[in-house]
Amino acid sequence: MAGVGKAVPKPTPTTQPYWDGCAAGELRLPHCGPCDAPFFPPQRWCPRCLGDEITWVRASGRGRLHTYLISHLAAPGFEDEVPYVVALVELDEGPRLMSNLVGVAPDPAVLRVDMPLEVVFAPRGDVVLPFFRPVEGQA
């Protein structure tokens, strides 16, 4: 799903560590000191306790498919990429994030909730995006 000239996220000061991690091939999560828990999406305050002692930790990059949808509608510039799978991934660390599944057919016959996934990264414009694929041998 790498493409030049396509829509890309715009990092902000709050999300820059996340995007820096993606560029380094790491999935990074904000971590609340007082709660001792990671969360997502990146925010200046913890969504659980509103603490502002936020650090960044490297996540395992592993998770499970929580739910998905198969999109047959393309945004402008993405017409060559339909159908595709939009997935809600529950990371092993707990937080959930939305991404796309790659390396698997967009077919309900092969997609199953709770299937093990791993992160992969692909450049798009000035950023590197995280995608997920089934863990080899467990699809």
What's a quick, concise take on this entry?
This protein has 139 residues and is mainly β.
Overall mean pLDDT score? 92
The secondary-structure element order is: HEEEEEEEE
Strand residue content: 35-45%
**How widely separated are the two ends?**
20 Å
Radius of gyration: 16 Å
Structural class: mainly beta
Assign a percent range to the helix content.
under 10%
* Unreliable residue runs: none
Spatial order of the strands forming the largest sheet = 6-5-4-7-8
**What does the oligomeric state look like here?**
single chain
Report on this model:
- It is a single chain.
- By secondary structure, the protein is mainly β.
- The protein contains 1 helix and 8 strands; from the N terminus they run αββββββββ.
- The strands form 2 sheets. Strands 6-5-4-7-8 form a 5-stranded antiparallel β-sheet.
- It is globular.
- The two termini are 20 Å apart.
